[in-house]
Structures are given as C-alpha cells and as structure tokens.
Fold these 2 entries.
Entry 1:
Amino acid sequence: MLLTPGWEANSNEPQYAQLYAYLKKEIAEGKLPENTRLPSVRKLADLLGLSTTPVEMAYQQLLAEGFITSRPRSGYYVEHLPEPEAKPLASQSAAAAVIERPLLRDSRQYEYDFHMSRNDFSLFPYVEWRRLYNQTLVLEQQDDLFFGDPQGEPGLRKQIARYLHQYRGVDCSPNQVVVGSDQFGMLSLLSLILKPEYPQIAVENPGYLLFARTFTHHGFEVKPVPLEYDGIDIGELHRSGARLAVVSPSHQYPRGMIMPISKRLQLLDWAKTVDGYILEDDYDGEFRYHGRPIPSLQGLLPKANVIYMGSFAQVVAPALCIWYMVLPESLLDRYYALVSETLLEQSASRLHQRTLEAFMKKGLLEKHLRKMRSLYRKKHDESIRAVHEHFGDRAVLYGKDAGFHLLLRVDSPYTEQEMRELAIQAKVRISPASFTWIQPPAETHKEFFLGFAGIPLEKIEPGVRALAAAWLH
C-alpha cells in the first residue's frame, strides 16, 4: 500500500490524530479496500518522516474502532465494511431470574471503596461554578425562577449540540436536543412516544437493567439479546422480531467491549430494514484512556434512526440532575405532540441549566473534562497494575481502557456470596456483576465491578491486595 498525496502533517492537531483521520477516510471511501495490508509501523514512520509513536497510536485507534485487524506475525489489514445505502461516513419479557442485587445505598463505611460508578470530586471547580451560579441567581432575572422551556433552555441545548458534535461526533441541531432531570424520566418520555407503534424492545443481555425495567413498566415486551465478543448479536436481534433496540456501543455495560465499525453499520442497516430505532446509551463515551474516544453511533451515517442519550452525571456531577437525549428529526413531531397533550414542564433545574450553559460557553467544561480524564487514566492504569501484581493468573480483567470500572473475573474457591462477605470483612466495597443478567446463562463466572474512579489513587493498590488476600486463600 502507498499513501496517496492527501496526507501531510500540520501543527494544528497531533500527528497521530491526523494520520488516523486520513486512514479512516481512505478505508471508508474504499480507497484502501478490504484485506489491504498496511505498512509496518516502522516502515510507515520512515515513509512519512515521523517517529513510530504517532503511527502506532493511529493504528491502535483504527484497531479499536474495527477499521483494521491485526494478524499475528503478519501485520495490520483493512477489515470488511458492510455496504450501507449511504456509503460515506458522516463528517461529523423477559422477567429476570431472582438474583440478589447489590446494596445500592450501602451505609457501611469502607476503607477501600470500589463503588462501580462513583465520581471523584476532588477536582470539581467549586469556585468557578459558585461564581457562575451566583451570576444566574440575581434579582434582575426573576423570570429564571419560573418554569423554563419544557425541552430545555435554548442556550444550553445549543451548547450541548456543539459539545456533542466536537467530542462525540453527534450530528444534530439544538432543536433535536431534549433536556431532563434523570434517565428514568427521559426513558419514560420515549416510552410514551414509541409504545403505540413499537411494543417490543431488544436489550443487551447482560446490560443496564434500568432500560429493561423501565420499558417493562411502560408495557413493552422486552427481548434480551445475547452479546458476542464485539457487542450485541445482530443475527439474534433480527430473530427477536423487535424494531427497537438499546445498545451501549462505545463501552458496553457491563462487559466493556467496543463495537467495531462493521457491526455498527450492520446495526444501522438493521434499524433501516425493520423501520425501527436504536437507543444509543453513551453513558461514559468521553472517558477513554488510551487512544481517542470512540465516536458515537448516531453520527456515523446521515439521518440515522438513532436516539442518542447522555448526561453530565459522569462528566461533571450527578447532583446537577441534567440528562439529555437527541431525537431523530422523524420523532420530533411526536415529541411536540406529547408535550402539548400532557402540558409537560421541564424537570431539570432551570438555574442549573443556565449555570451549565455559562460553564460550557466559557470553555470550562472542556478544561474540567481534560483534568478528569487524566486523573481517571492514572487510577485505571494503577488498578490494572495492582490486579496483575496481586491476583496474577487467578483473575482476568474485561472492559479496559474506558469508563469508570473494570470487570474482574476471579478464580476463587468461594461462592459469590461468600466472596461478598469476605470483602466486607476486609473493609472493601465491591459489587458482583451477576445482577446485570436479564436471562442468566447456564454457566456463570464470579465477576465483580472494580470501580476505580471514586477511590483515592493511593488506596487502589492496598485495596486490591486486601481483596486478593481475602479471596484467594
């Protein structure tokens, strides 16, 4: 393979990012066809006059997104991409078995707290947030204390659309953004919009139970679909008969796999074939620690049948109670009709919305995100190192390189319940992952959420050591 004259380095963006974007475009447009062998890292670096580091980073990002594959002792090859109708990439019931669930509000005090989704607030910009909030809460703006726009403050929706385009590759206008105070409320709105035409919904198994439970309570028939090594099983999705599906493609919950580009295109093709919709849960898409964040499914093809859902709970703080979804244009009329019929009012604090708008407009959100990603990367890497040191070959980690937790599979002589009790005795909070199954498989493993975001960095190693001592002896 020879590079065409379309790529040359400039100083506006990291070299690896430029090379990654160029190669991705060449593959998507078919200029680098399936099974094309890419030059070795060293050869391409020599050809372009670069060090090997940016070339290796570009290849690793393409590998993570499924554009290329690595063949042992052979090199990197271009993967097969399905042929959707729009070829170019856009620029920018299942009632569960009774399983004991973790203590969601555990009042015990732990020396080592590996909570599965807790934030670290040590770097929260208290001074800046307080100043912006005080500027919002002034006598001259008394109207801000009244109900705001049911869809969300226009200025905030504009900022969210810009942010999503820049950081998650989402293609939308502010008119497509809907703001709410919590995920259950947003899903309930969707249920009311979709139920008349789409009475069934497919969900990942295992997966995030809030989706399955919420849609069940709204009268949907929930169809659990198993996972493959790279995400939801598309064949089983077709066979389910559902025309709605919930997926978390950028970092599957709980198993952490990243859906490659080929399967993403198959999923989009499924939605078009059945005239249905995909609900994309992008709960922690901003937090990828090695390589660039994986772009959203929503922005992959123009006008895709995707409902995108995210929040500022992980990026800033859950206490803001600001969630959002991006509706396809084809669903906007149904949403506006529902607002009119129900006299719906906004559930998210208008003051928090206006403060967040100012926070984003001043560039403070991007600054805070960079700090948090750096901090969580250190904790992520330390967690992996500590598990390797203290568990050795008695444990396997899944879902690395992104998110707030690792999935820890342990070879232990104890039962799961015994392991939970032993962890408590060792003053360690850690939750089993068994509750995420809607339909448990015949054979299950002892797997636990090792949440690393909320625990202090210096406590990770002794906490993992305490777990190993409790579980392996």
Entry 2:
Amino acid sequence: MLRNAVIGVDIGTSSSKGVLVGLDGTLLRSAVREHTPARPGPGRFEMDAAVWWREFTELTRELTAPADAAVIAVGVSGMGPCVLLTDEDDEPLRPAILYGVDTRAVRQIERLDQQLGGEEILARCGSALTTQAAGPKIAWIAEEEPELYARARRLYMPSSWLVRKLTGAYVLDHHSASQCTPLYDTTARQWYAPWAETVAPGIELPALAWSGESAGVLTTEAARAANLPAGIPVATGTIDAWAEALSVGAQQTGDLMLMYGTTMFLIHTVPEPLTSPSLWGTVGALPGTRNLAGGMATSGAVTNWLRDLVGAADHPELLSLAEAAGPGANGLLMLPYFSGERTPVMDPEARGVIAGLTLSHTRGDLYRAALEATGFGVRHNIEVLEAAGGDIRRVVAVGGGTQGALWTRIVSDITGREQELRATSIGASYGGALLAAQLVTDASIDEWNPVRQTVRPAAENAARYDELYALYRRLYPDTADVVHSLAALQDR
C-alpha cells in the first residue's frame, strides 16, 4: 500500500530544493537543482522564469520516481520579493528582477519618496522604500524599458508563478504582497489602488490569499509535466524566509528566526504593527500575524566566494581551519557588504571591507572573519529591532549554515543569545510541505519537527566580541566615503 505524502518545493537564489514528506513529518526524499542568477551589470540580479518551472518539474519527477508514495498535496515558496512581468498571454516579458540584492532602482526610490512622501509610505506600507521593495523595480522597467512595459499585464514572484503553472490561479499571498511597497496597505491588508495605479499602471494585480490557503488544484497538463496526480490541492505559498520560519515553528509572538543561507534573514513576530526606517514591517505568513524583519545582502554568499577564491574542496575543510583560528580571527575584521547592504544600513553602494590583513593571515582566518561578520551584522539588526519596540523572547535558527555547529556558536557568542535548533533544518521546502500537509491534515510543526538542541553563548568570549563589535560599528562610517567612490568606479 502506498504511503500518503506531500511535496514542498522552494526556488532559492542559488538552488531549487524539493522534499517528499510523510504526513507525520518524516523526510522521505530530497532533491536539489543548483543555478546561478544572471548578473547583467553592477548591482543587477535576474533569473529566467523558465528555470523555475523546469526545475520544479525536474524535482517532482525525481522525488516521485520510486513509486512508493501517493502525493496528496503540494506547497511552494521562493525568493522574494521578485518582479516578473508577463503579457496578456502570460508570457514573461523579461527575466525576473530579484529581491534586495538587485540595487538598480535607486533613482526610482528617490523619485517615489518625493512623489508619495517617505513618511506616508512608511506609515501605510510598514516599510520605507528600499532596494528590497518590488514597487521601484516595476517603476524601473516602466521608465527604462517602456516598449516592453507597455505590454505588461501581470506581476509574479517565484511562488506565485509556480501556482499559476500548477493551477491556473493568479494569486499572491498577503505576506509577499506586503513586500511590494508601496502597492500594499499593511493595515487594510489589501492593495492600495491609488499608489498601485501610480507605480504600476496597467498591471492587473493578483488576488490575495494567505500562505496556507489552497490556491486551487493541479491541472491535468501540469500534473503530466510534474508526474503528480491531477486534482490535488496546491497551497498559495510565500517568500522563502517566511516558509523557513514556518518550518521551525518560529511564528509565535516574541520569536526571532535567523535564516542562515546565501543571505542572512531575520523575522521577528510582533503583537502589533511596528515600523522602522531601517527594517521591514510586514504582515505575516499566517492570518493575524505581523512581523518586523531584516536581511543582510550576503552571508553564505561570502563564504562561497571565499571557498572558490582559495580553492578549498568544500566548506567543512574551511570550517575546521576557522575553528582553529579562534575568536577574533587573529585580528581580522570584515564588513560583509559585498552586494551592498540591506538592513539596517540600507546602503546599496556599500562594499565589503577586510581590515587588519597581514602576511601571516591564513585562509582559516579569512573564513572565520566572514562567519564573525555575519554575527556582527545579526547583532546590529537585533539592536535596531529592539530599539523599534521588538521584544525577542526566543531565537530559532534554520538553514544550511546551521550545519557544522561553528557558525551558530559564533553568532550566539557575538549576540549573547541562545538559539534553538530543530531536528530538521532543511528550510523553506520543508515549510512548503507543512503548508501542503495542513491542507489535508491537522499537521503540527511541533510534532513534525521538535527542538533537538539549544546553542548557548560562551561567556569567556563575550569581552573579546564586545570589543570587536565596537570596531565593526566604527568601520562602516569610517570607510563609507572611500567605498562609495569605489562603487561609482565599478558602476562606470
């Protein structure tokens, strides 16, 4: 007899991941497809939507190749907020512009701030206009590619594009919509027509639903392409970081999720709307929830860059060397702003800095400095979260960077915070599977994925990291003029 199961698929920045999960939360199989975003110019990151659908179908076919499970629901998530515009026939007009790592729309941010009022945007939308927001990127296409924009009719993100291909529904989850600043009113929880017509004229905005609601059922055509049964329900889904939070149960008031991935993401669940010009105020993935969130433009992206730069076989080798380097990386300090920086610096022209280099430093020291740079960035975000009124009662870690233990220990030492690790740390695809399971069962994340470990800060490292953190906070303002000039040279 076949075992009932669900599938979750996440479209990430550097890979797409799929999981086949039993209705009790047991991971039955997983699969990955790696990819690389296109970089057509400085500060520009794009991806062809055809990649998303192709990799989805490849993953589901691989997961279902052994015919030992009956898939009864599907959940999806993806990086975001992204901007994919399609014509009236739903043909993509250009590659999707990715989330805050794509910094091309600086001029549009400045113009919209002046036109609509920066304080008014923050009050209505929960977030200031930054490179993270989808609205300015739509405006960039309208201004820079007007002939193309004239044919634009619909707006998609990776998760909603998969939903469209799977079910035919044109729907976006409320959380993703709340990152389309300034198109969505976070208090009314609906599109704000006056600003939508100003920023995205001619675009038919999608219907709105919550992440765990059914968007529809799998069509016969999609079922054939994905090797899945026609007629099974598909969850609306959401942005990957919020699916990650669901995958580890970090959606209760006072929770803070740390997502260790290509970028570092922080999601704090709050009891009432909070705003900060240095953070993102959003509605949550679940009805009635609200978040104050932050995100660093790089974390794992820097460690991957270092691995390739020094020719290491893989991360475990470098983690071992970084462990031996010890706290403080033998006097190295890094600003991890290799793709500009999102929160709380909000500076797309920021650049990476490595300070204190000598001829005696090793690749282990450099790798340790990169891990510590993420920790300092997390501490900076936490301080701004709490200054905005956040009340962090529990920290839950998730993502590939939690493997190997060192990185989470460093972050706990630097921040002075304990971090819970759940039994399964697969991430967003597992969160998508949970959303799928909840369409057909009463699945509970605490039963699916219990806490297995708590990482506690080492008191003996506190003083050294306090000293280094003070230097970290000085390093950005002390070097900003120089790196901004270098960024201008790179743009030219």
